[in-house]
Amino acid sequence: MSHVTKTMTKTDGKTWIEALTSAIAAVNQPNFASSLVELIRLLVDFDCAVILGYSAKRRPVYLFDELPIQRELLFQYYLNRAYLDDPFYRMLQDDERTMQGVFDLASLAKDLGLNPDYLNDFYQATGWQEELGLVISIEQNRWVVINLGFIANKSQPVSFKKKAMLNQLTEVFELIAALCRQHWGTKPFVLAEPPLTNQAMQAHVNAALSDFGAAVLTKREHQVVRLILQGFDSKAIAEQLVIGEGTVKNHRKRIYSQLHVASLSELHGLFLNHLLTYSP
Fold it and tell me: How many CB atoms sit inside 10 A of residue 169's CB?
């Protein structure tokens, strides 16, 4: 009998079917990621979880975390610079490699190599002994990676049961991937998804983005400026809006003219002031 089938029959706590039902109901809702992690936890006894959105040649975007310790390392170090040396990130930048499946960090590091600075300056500080990752292709050049962390100094090493955990996750991978595609399939990875307690902040930022420059910009210019403010360069904007890169550059010139700014830093400063003073 498979592990999943056994989990379906649990009588203590939530069963697999109950957790799956909750995750399905949470698709496109703020509690989806937490429901998904709860579902996975019925299969694998991990200590920490981080979910990130990846796009080709772009920095990862925060989607969710359950980090009981050292949470600041994710935001202050990993998302600012350390991600460049992460074997999961590096794998996704290599067109020759498999872009989807269940992987463990130790095997990826052995295959791709591991920067000693990443190991010594960042990874050891997290306290993670091992890491399993579900790499899910949402669409071409866009992935969700669910990282499951195991804290060091436990009595039984993770390696003792890693093969079984990889098999369990592989068994349900397509189901988890389908749920992720339903939830994140139409959402570009541009703004971090806030914790449940910060939903009002996200709503305020989105409303301010929608209002910024609306009185003087055309609909297309407004689409372009939203993407500029979220870190897209001209090439990425052209791909996102399915227009020519030269057209994007023309829009940028007119946006700067209409908003009376001369540089990207001035544009960001103008938006920051708008964000702080915006009231719907």
Answer: 23
